[in-house]
């Protein structure tokens, strides 16, 4: 199955935007009467028949609509963006393919980047959803400071973890996390969290966790955290 994306689907017809129409007609060489699948990114899958098609616009008739159930757990990754934007985009693609729910970029004391292009990140994420046949597009929150994230999650019922470089043999995230929970995992920048930030996290209910014996880059740590929590809740 090939999956296409269109926001705000209403009624019994869908008019695809130019980029999706061009891909359908020029790359996939679809034609009138062919069946394709569309998602709105909110868990709904639409089976459609092509009514008309061109490079600029494609009209589809909806013949079936189904709602995919939500996961019984929630993965919220809070991570400091890397200096190299390509690396954080790579991570976003991969954790979308694996499956996560929410992402917040944080500015820490040792952060090297404080600006991101949300439109570009959303396009990367939607493309990854289409490739991995996911009908729910994760949420990306605006970038905030480390302290703002702590303050916003003071009363959350999530299991809260902070991953940082430590030689004291912390317990692995897989062993600390319970199944079917809401999770918030903090991942620091290339220079790691400051001692002050680590202590602030501890004071606000975060537990130290390990992601393995290797020293990981920021984007690799983000990927490892999402994969670990997804594996903890497998099958789902």
Low-confidence stretches: none
Proportion in β-strands? 25-35%
Q: Largest sheet, described in full?
A: 6 strands, parallel
Order of helices and strands: EEHEEEEHEHEHEHEHEH
Oligomer: single chain
Structural class: alpha/beta
Topology at a glance:
Layout lengths: L2 E3 L7 E4 L1 H10 L7 E5 L4 E10 L4 E10 L6 E6 L5 H14 L3 E6 L10 H14 L7 E7 H7 L6 E5 L9 H4 L5 E6 L7 H9 L3 E3 L8 H15 L4
Parallel strand pairs: 1-3, 6-7, 6-10, 7-8, 9-10, 9-11
Antiparallel strand pairs: 2-5, 3-4, 4-5
What does this structure look like?
- The two termini are 21 Å apart.
- Helix 2 links the parallel strand 6 and strand 7.
- It is built from seven helices and eleven strands.
- It has helices spanning 18-27, 85-98, 118-131, 146-152, 173-176, 195-203, 218-232; strands at 3-5, 13-16, 35-39, 44-53, 58-67, 74-79, 102-107, 139-145, 159-163, 182-187, 207-209.
- The protein is of the alpha/beta class.
- It is 31% helix and 28% strand.
- The model has no long low-confidence stretch (mean pLDDT 94).
- The protein has a six-stranded parallel sheet with strand order 8-7-6-10-9-11, sandwiched between helices. A five-stranded mixed sheet has the order 1-3-4-5-2.
Key terms:
six-stranded parallel β-sheet; 7 helices; alpha/beta; five-stranded mixed β-sheet; 236 residues
Question: What would you say about this model in short?
Answer:
The chain is an alpha/beta fold and 236 residues long. 31% of the residues lie in helices and 28% in strands.
